[in-house]
Write a structure and sequence with these properties.
Length: 233
């Protein structure tokens, strides 16, 4: 279990959506310091947060951020991108861009911050996935999040002996800019943030933040036709 009261936390994509809600909820829970990243740090609006300029796909930017935040004990990989790339019709560069942001970005951050967290006595890693990690309806976005899920599972084993626990957050539609064009029920970012941090504090391996995510996770053990209605026709 990881205590967030007094903790120093690094949140990627901390200026809007789930990331902004995580920053706010961390301070509600008594975090000592929260670094909130954005490409333009001026968009970080929380009065107590430490704004950090970060491009998660740029190793030099990641290294500079880790050097700035040498007191961190909790890393939250929240930043992500959704291009909506089709495997058959979209430019391959669009597919690569989603993997660079959603898979390699968290990997770069984790590799940079694991030594920091170790030096500070251990801590926690939270990776933000998606229900589309398990449901292949989002083209390369789904594939990149599925790859991140696998990365998270591997890191959980690698980091356990090093005193770093790992939690994966899976969630469906959230009322953020990313889902602005979706006409479907959406969770509030504040509720998702609270559930995610409950998971960190309790040492949960995974947090399933809504009913659709729990339904899809339960269906993984069954025949694919149970998740994809087209296959049953």
């Amino acid at each position: 279990m990881t205590a967030l009261k007094g903790a120093h936390v690094f949140v990627t994509g901390g200026s809007r959506g789930i990331g902004k809600a995580l920053v706010e909820e961390l301070y509600v829970r008594g975090a000592g310091k929260v670094y909130a990243t954005a490409r333009d740090p001026r968009t970080v609006t929380h009065p107590d947060a430490v704004p950090v300029a970060l491009e998660v796909t740029d190793p030099a930017s990641v290294a500079a951020a880790a050097a700035q935040a040498e007191d961190v004990t909790v890393l939250i990989n929240n930043a992500g991108a959704s291009v909506g790339a089709s495997f058959l019709d979209s430019p391959v560069d669009d597919v690569r861009r989603e993997f660079e942001t959603n898979f390699y970005g968290p990997l770069l951050l984790t590799r940079a911050f694991v030594p920091v967290i170790e030096r500070n006595g251990g801590g926690h890693l939270l990776n933000v996935h998606s229900v589309l990690s398990w449901l292949a309806l989002g083209g390369s976005y789904s594939a990149s999040k599925a790859a991140l899920w696998s990365q998270t599972n591997s890191l959980r084993l690698e980091l356990r002996p090093r005193g770093i626990a790992v939690t994966g957050l899976h969630v469906g539609y959230v009322d953020t800019d990313l889902a602005a064009g979706v006409d479907a029920p959406k969770s509030s970012p504040r509720d998702v943030a609270a559930l995610a941090l409950d998971g960190v504090e309790s040492g949960a391996y995974e947090v399933l933040a809504d009913d659709i995510t729990r339904h899809v996770k339960a269906g993984l053990a069954g025949d694919p036709a149970g998740l994809y209605a087209e296959l049953a026709q």
